[in-house]
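Support request from a user on the community tier.

User writes: "When I paste my structure tokens into the form, the page sometimes reloads and wipes my input. The last time it worked, I copied everything first. Here is what I submitted, just in case something in the input itself triggers the reload:"
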């Protein structure tokens, strides 16, 4: 695998768009010039004194108070050079039934809940984690996606830490084989891998620290008639929701439902006894055989995919416990939360919704090629699919977080659109 740092300064400046055009998947980054002794990559909050740690357990005090210069300062793993296994103390690995796409990287996830504290189950929203919780996710790039876990290069490790003043995100870049460094300014990395027997080359973006807010924040829907309404955005985790955790995980010594395992480990409470009754997103992997699925199964799987990849921005109140809050694109008309009913609100999922966010793509014959977000049985005319299947910065979605196209995700959404009941959406130029 070819991974080459870009040494030229390359700061990606993203304009502040109207919320109707925002759908940012966390992960987009910008590169920075690497300068020996430079403080560009070090947050001013760092205090080496408080990050020094000689104990065998997790450095909880530093996690709660300091943005340390090295990932190893927190002592999260038994082998600090291996962030893929062997979590220290209460660390528990986990996975999601459907995962956010990040350039075919392998993701290694762990949750650390301080001893004596417990998280609380939530039906729709992210698990309610107590102060002190740390969510750890390492992105490793395989030489060949057919052989994950073999010849992988660690790219970055992201920490989400629930501190007393709320959640904070800390990105760590693996600038050596043994440790990762806290990086504020982001980094662009040239990647070359083999996927599905083909060579892929793209630019992977380690995010700037402040870019994490683009995905993880829910924003207040301010009352324009109330000058006292000055509510702030709220930073939240995205992935660890019950609907993505409610399936079996191989812990090595046993295979167990993740929610049940968290219960037995004493880090989660209030989970329904009947796990089968939990509204859960199905398992979708790049190897999923779409042809074997019924139309109903395709719909549920597509909804899970749109939820994890899009609904962190495209959601509004339904999955947000705070009143009058929404995702960054919550008022765009496209809201794709998994627990939103597709049959009663198809327009919320883009069906026959006018495509206005990124402009039209016009053909020479004069008609709009992508007039609606979703045109049933016409994936080729659906703007939602086009945005997933392009790297054109004017149109691609998610805007951040990917330098390549998730072809398996594109095939899933294409199959779902083409499986829908016919509806011409009032268009006069559809061609069967």
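"...and here is what came back when it finally went through:"
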């Amino acid at each position: 695998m070819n991974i080459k740092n870009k040494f030229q300064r390359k700061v990606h400046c993203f304009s502040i768009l109207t919320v109707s055009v925002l759908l940012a998947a966390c992960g987009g980054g910008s590169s920075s010039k690497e300068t020996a002794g430079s403080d560009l990559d070090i947050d001013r909050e760092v205090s080496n004194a408080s990050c020094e740690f000689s104990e065998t357990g997790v450095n909880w005090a530093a996690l709660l108070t300091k943005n340390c210069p090295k990932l190893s300062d927190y002592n999260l793993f038994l082998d600090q050079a291996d962030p893929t296994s062997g979590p220290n103390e209460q660390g528990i690995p986990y996975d999601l039934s459907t995962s956010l796409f990040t350039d075919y990287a392998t993701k290694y996830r762990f949750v650390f809940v301080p001893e004596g504290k417990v998280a609380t189950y939530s039906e729709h929203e992210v698990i309610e984690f107590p102060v002190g919780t740390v969510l750890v996710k390492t992105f490793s790039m395989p030489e060949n996606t057919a052989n994950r876990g073999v010849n992988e290069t660690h790219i970055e490790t992201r920490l989400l830490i629930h501190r007393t003043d709320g959640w904070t995100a800390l990105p760590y870049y693996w600038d050596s084989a043994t440790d990762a460094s806290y990086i504020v300014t982001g980094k662009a990395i040239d990647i070359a891998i083999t996927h599905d027997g083909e060579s892929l080359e793209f630019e992977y973006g380690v995010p700037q620290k402040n870019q994490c807010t683009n995905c993880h924040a829910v924003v207040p829907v301010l009352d324009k008639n109330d000058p006292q309404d000055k509510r702030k955005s709220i930073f939240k985790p995205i992935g660890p929701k019950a609907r993505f955790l409610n399936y079996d995980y191989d812990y090595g010594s046993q295979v167990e439902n993740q929610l049940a395992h968290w219960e037995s480990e004493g880090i989660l409470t209030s989970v329904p006894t009947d796990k089968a009754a939990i509204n859960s997103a199905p398992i979708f992997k790049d190897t999923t055989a779409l042809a074997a699925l019924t139309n109903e199964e395709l719909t549920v799987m597509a909804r899970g995919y749109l939820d994890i990849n899009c609904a962190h921005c495209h959601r509004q109140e339904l999955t947000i416990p705070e009143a009058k809050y929404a995702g960054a694109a919550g008022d765009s008309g496209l809201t794709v939360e998994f627990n939103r009913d597709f049959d009663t609100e198809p327009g919320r999922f883009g069906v026959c919704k006018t495509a206005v966010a990124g402009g039209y793509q016009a053909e020479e014959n004069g008609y709009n090629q992508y007039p609606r977000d979703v045109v049933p049985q016409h994936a080729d005319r659906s703007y939602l699919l086009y945005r997933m299947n392009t790297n054109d910065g004017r149109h691609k979605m998610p805007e951040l977080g990917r330098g390549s196209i998730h072809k398996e995700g594109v095939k899933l959404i294409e199959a779902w659109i083409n499986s829908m009941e016919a509806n011409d959406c009032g268009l006069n130029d559809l061609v069967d």
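Agent notes: The reload is a front-end session timeout and is unrelated to the input. Residues 9-419 form one domain. Confidence is low (pLDDT under 50) at residues 4-44. Escalated to web team.
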